[in-house]
Amino acid sequence: MSISAQADNDDLGKHVVQVPAWIGLTDQYSEGSFVWYEGPGQIYAPVFTAWANLEPDNKPNNNADCAMFTAGAWSDEECSTAHAYVCEYVYP
Ligand SMILES: [Ca+2]
Ligand SMILES: [Ca+2]
């Protein structure tokens, strides 16, 4: 999935995501350069971001490469930690 506007980010926080959740934004390919991973070969630069204050900081452990959504604010966290996640489904 990707979040491309403030309104989308707000809607997600209000109506969909009630717990901290992975959103599919990562800098595991190039440290410091976050991209949306939407599937094999589908990697896109973000057109909108909603990082929390002082994020992304590559912490904890200088190994934070996946973006977490918490009440509308994003932070980078270690990808290996178990959390809820958000997926996008295109309704046919
Ligand atoms: Ca990182
Ligand atoms: Ca962080």
Could you give the count of β-strands? 6
Q: Label the CATH architecture.
A: Roll
Number of helices: 1
CATH class: Alpha Beta
Helix content: 10-25%
Report the average pLDDT across residues. Answer: 94
Distinct small molecules bound, one entry per kind: calcium ion
* Rounded Rg: 12 Å
Number of domains: 1
What's the CATH superfamily, by name? Mannose-Binding Protein A, subunit A
Protein described:
The protein has 92 residues and is an alpha+beta fold. It is globular. It has one helix at 6-16; strands at residues 21-26, 35-37, 43-44, 66-70, 73-77, 84-85. A hairpin with an 8-residue loop joins strand 1 (21-26) and strand 2. The protein has one domain: Mannose-Binding Protein A, subunit A (Mannose-Binding Protein A, Chain A, Roll). The model has no long low-confidence stretch (mean pLDDT 94). Strands 1, 2, 3, 4, 5 and 6 form a 6-stranded mixed β-sheet that branches. 12% of the residues lie in helices and 25% in strands. The chain is built from 1 helix and 6 strands. The protein starts with 5 loop residues before the first helix and ends in a 7-residue tail after the last strand. The structure holds calcium ion (CA) (2 copies).
